[in-house]
Queue: 3 jobs
Job 1
Amino acid sequence: MEHGVRAHADGRSLRRADRAPSGGDIHVAQDGPPDAPAGVLLHGLGGSTTWWEPVLPALRDLNVVRVDLLGHGTSAKPAGGYGIAEQARRVGAVLDELGIRRATVVGHSTGGAVATSLAEQRRGLVAAIALIDTGPRLDAFLGDSFAGRLLTTPVVGELLWRLRTDGTISDALSTAFTREGRIPDRMIADVRGMTYRSLTATDEASTAYLEERPVPDRLVGLDLPTLVVFGSRDRRWRPSSAQDYRRVPRARIEILDGVGRTPMFEDPDTTGALLRDFALAPAPR
């Protein structure tokens, strides 16, 4: 299979781009006016471009680029290539192919690590960065659901993955929400569609990135406008750890009351409005 980027814009047919780093095809969705300010949306572990659909109406005045990271959604799922820096290079290649030279980059959870790495690599490309429930450091991690812990346990996890059901996946995703309600089918389908290797390697890569250096420490020297959005009832990352980002110059922290770790689903109106206003804010002089 050739390596490249597969993109669609507002429902038009997929097209190829041959300048992406190796690893396999990367799926991209593009919405909104192509000449508008660009906003890039990067999902977290187990997610896809569809996780951002609830906030798209609020972002209609932006040129929105959503990317399925390697191993996720309909992007390729090879045996390797899941390092955070590698994922960030692929996102940069997508934007180069689309002709986007400056963008506000938004990342949810692990996607926030990828967004940060992209800013580290391509300071001229990233105009501003928004992080949604991205854990700042490893010791802020509260833990996963019982099913989630089992799935990442060597040997046992791989066996359970082969026997996975929608119910098992739903249990594993339970800590992603705080408000009562059924786990969206699209979330379950996205996780089910991953390979066990893509799931565990992405999880390991995220851990390694935080072990190397906390996210706020990485942002301090970048001097970027920064928006941090955190659910006050995040069940995986200690909500109070959002205050770690206060040491980042030009950082703004928004805590969403009564929301868990998926604000795009739990409070899409507020989340979308925050992202829109941040991305459309006048560039600092």
Job 2
Amino acid sequence: MELELRHLRTLCVIAEAGSLGRAAAVLGHSQPAVSTQLGRIERHFGEDLFLRTPTGVKPTAYGAQVLARSREVLAAVERIGRREDEAPAAPSGRALRLAATNTPVLPGLVRRLRGQLPEVPLTVSSVYASSAIVDLLEHEEIDAALAVDYPGQELPHSAAVEHRGIITEPVFLALPAGHRLRHRAEVSLAELADEAWFLTPDDGAGWPGFFHAACAAAGFTPAVVHEFLGDQVQLQRMIAEGLGVSVVQATIQPIPGVIVKPLTGTPLWTRYLLVWRRDGRAGEVAETLYRSAVESYRELISRAPHFQTWMARTYG
């Protein structure tokens, strides 16, 4: 097989989607077709690029290298024909209206957008529920957004809305620094059956049902659940006081009194999405939005040693 750009794009979509089924939906192909194509690509490289797991696929160490170089090639192709002094296309007129659920990707994304598109006014809204974000896009009240969904539960939307996966990341656990399991490299959900939990409310994309299903698979139902929709610092202060534990984003930066651990077997995953209207103004700068989000996430990884340790242990 001769390697083509479409093969590199397929690899990137699979990595972003976190599963062959989700990648097939993005690509508009059947899952068997995507699986067959991946097999041909892997035979070309001579080894597996993804590790197949019950919850999806994850890049192998070699696969991560291939993906990084594939993204470089695709980015270079996009720049072909662009003059060196040519700025990315920018929507004209009113401000670009951006919304976002609770995600640490947002600050870095906004900073990069302002640097790359300084002439474009930008407004940012906080919208917790990803389903509400879709509604705003459908009714043309926003132009683009950062949303989330979960493996096997792709965020539903009409053909008027486009989406692209930014990253599928594991869900980690935040504990009080003095917790009985503080010396463990990772912690299983079953070991926390008797804990009080802080959980964010229904996000219209499958949470917290996704969490409760994982607990049921681990053999327990959380006895005490505190619904919490405050900022991350406030949540961490509650945890530091020993009032409960919480699942958290893998790149979270813990405050003093809080430690962050991966969950054994990685039973929970979250996918960050860029969503925008196909016929809207954000379509003109969708690639800039996407690259800014990816670069923002990479910066978060560089500041999260607990996540780096997990990646080194998991992917070698």
Job 3
Amino acid sequence: MLKAAGFAVLAVVVAAVAGIEAQTESSVAVEPVRPTVVMPKPVVKKPTSSSRIDLSLEGLAAASKLYAAGKVPAVRCVLPGRPPQTKGELLAYARVMVGCMDRAWAPVVGRADATLFPVKTVQAYDLKKPAASPECDKPLRNMDAFYNSGTICFEWPEFSNPDEPVWNLVDFQQLIAHEYGHHVQQSAGILTTYDAGWSKQPKATQLENERRLELQASCLGAAFLGANRSGFRLAGERLRMWKYIVRHVGDENNTLKIRDHGSYKNHAYWTTRAFASTSPATCNTFKATPQRVS
């Protein structure tokens, strides 16, 4: 996940909200033998070009049953009592959040004829001491987090500023939800399809499909947060923070000038729609026009 843009413009707002953060995180409660029938021999027609199955990476990913699997449910999620700031607190929060997403996404992925397998581990790393977290091998400096075959890794110092605890927490929530979105993609077969076909494509197509994949992960994460907005207290000032953050995540922040995550505008488009719908039906980025995933 790309680093979000700077947030100095909201320092006054954050400080004001942080002053009321003594409240405890709330919870949200949620979940005869048929007769033999002789049929005439069918007439098999040669398929037309419009009826052929699209076996391309984009076609297979766009046809996933995940999009018709229904809304993400609200689940009971008992979060830690105050905004996390230390490495240990952030890890604890992330692991509780992953457990909540496990419960929410399992029935949805199941209805897509797939199985949501467990996340292997959630780990925190520090770019200044990468050897301390061998599970998060070779983290990139322009990323806050990444997903790798069931492992979620995040750069914990990015979320430890004691002057902005509420802002950091909201940013952290959307980040972990995004990385878990990749886990949903892998469980549903979308990520596997992407990995199998990516290397065979021209560079421009590779980047476009990587943007489709990343925007979809953010979209799936936002669907979960929208369904569970009460438990994650995403209302009022916190919701305004979340909307600001998702409107400032994108390739504009990429210090390497690589367009692989999508623009601010398109990141905002996919996340805000999914937050409102709470459904993966609004996350079929592989069926979208190139302009919508630019």
